[in-house]
Every structure is written in C-alpha cells, then in structure tokens.
Write a structure and sequence with these properties.
The complex is a heterodimer of chains A (about 120) and B (about 110). With about 120 residues, chain A is mainly beta. Chain A contains no helices and twelve strands. In chain B, about 0% of the residues lie in helices and about 50% in strands. In chain B, the strands form two sheets. In chain B, strands 2, 4, 5, 6, 9, 10 and 11 form a seven-stranded mixed beta sheet that branches. Chain B has a four-stranded antiparallel beta sheet with strand order 1-3-8-7, with no helix packed on it. Chain B starts with a strand and ends with a strand. Classes of the chains: A mainly beta (about 120), B mainly beta (about 110).
C-alpha cells in the first residue's frame, strides 16, 4: 500500500515571498504520478501541478514548481511570489501506474496562509 | 462546461435515514471515484469504478454502497446513516490513457445528527 505524508499541518508566508511545502511518499511501485491539489475556502479541488515518475525534469506551472527526488521519495511544492489567492489547503497525492484509472492516495494536507 | 456535477450540495440527515449522493460527468471519462474528507484526514477513497460495469472498495467502504448506473453516472448510497458519516463527499472522474488527471466535483457536505 502507498502512503503520503505531509509533515507541515500549517504554514504562513508573506505576500510576494517564496514558500516550500513538503511531501514524502512510500511505495514499491516504479510507475506512478504525483500531484499537488489546492483547495481554497470554496472547497473546490484544483489541480496545481503533476509529475510523472519517469521524468527526471521537475514540473513547473507559472509560479509553482516541484522538487522531485525519486530516490528519496520526496515531492515538495515551491510557490514563488506568493499571492493572497494562494491561501488554501494543499494536498499532495499519489497515483499508481500510468493507466489513469487508479485512485489517488492523499496526504493529510498543509494549510497555507498568505499574509499581506 | 459542467465537468463533474454532484447533488445535493448540502444535506442534513437523522441517524438511520438513508440517502443517495448523485454524481454525473460529461467528459466521457471511463473511471469514477468517491472520496470523503474529514478534518485533519485528507481525502480517503470510499469506492471507485475503473470502468463501466465494475466497482471496487477503497479504504473506507463500510456503510456505503455504490452504483455505476452508466458511463456518466456514479451514485453513492448510505443505507442507514450514522454520525460517523458526517463528512464532505467528493466525486471525481478520470480518463483511461489520458493525462491521468482526476477532475473533482464541488463536493457534498453531509451532516448526520
């Protein structure tokens, strides 16, 4: 079974600063995807970024980037130039395989507050 | 551009009552999922349907049943609601062989008194 651990229940960052959210996972699989989802107060789950395990290059999406360390089973999210709209719960998630029809395993989440 | 639609958005039940949470997706996705979210627990899988005609248990299936009515619809039924089932429920869908992204509905907040 896979497990996902987010060790920071809460974090805060000043507007325009950079913050890094940590995620580690445990699996014996070699083929998988990793994701970061954002959940603002509206409760909607929004995909932030995804990473294929076979890709060595770290994924980036505008101000969001990841540091994927496959050997260490680590998948951290860096948010640059933090904005008030980044205030949300952030969930790290694992998907086994590359078929697209397997469930996600989530971490418990990190609540991020961006302070003006 | 509806995506994944869940009904209802809010529901209050008394212990022992039954209800069905509805989920429909208009993206022609093969796979659908039900998760529940509790404070401090993240999202946990209840049941999923990898393809039309199949369903499988997840991490927390007790007290729930599911029906994959057709390719579009995947319902979750609580036969005899218990206070421990107070939670936010999310439905999601994904495409086999696609970008491997799960798309989520807006969630249903359920309170069992």
């Amino acid at each position: 079974a896979q497990t996902v651990t987010q060790s920071q229940p809460e974090m805060s960052v000043q507007e325009a600063e950079t913050v890094t959210l940590s995620c580690t996972y445990d699996t014996s699989e070699n083929n998988y995807y990793l994701f970061w989802y954002k959940q603002p107060p509206s409760r909607q789950m929004i995909l932030v970024i995804r990473q294929e395990a076979y890709k060595q290059q770290n994924a980036t999406e505008n101000r969001f980037s990841v540091n994927f360390q496959k050997a260490a089973k680590s998948f951290s999210l860096k948010i640059s130039d933090s904005q008030l709209g980044d205030t949300a719960m952030y969930f790290c998630a694992f998907m086994r395989g590359y078929s697209g029809n397997t469930p996600l395993v989530f971490g418990k989440g990190t609540r991020l507050s961006v302070i003006a | 551009n509806a995506g994944v639609t869940q009904t209802p958005k809010f529901q209050v039940l008394k212990t022992g009552q039954s209800m069905t949470l509805q989920c429909a997706q208009d993206m022609n996705h093969n796979s659908m999922y039900w998760y529940r979210q509790d404070p401090g627990m993240g999202l946990r899988l209840i049941y999923y349907s990898a393809s039309e005609g199949t369903t499988d248990k997840g991490e927390v299936p007790n007290g729930y049943n599911v029906s994959r009515l057709n390719k579009r619809e995947f319902s979750l039924r609580l036969e005899s609601a218990a206070p421990s089932q107070t939670s936010v429920y999310f439905c999601a869908s994904s495409e086999v062989g696609g970008p491997n992204i799960q798309y989520f509905g807006a969630g249903t907040r359920l309170s069992v008194l």
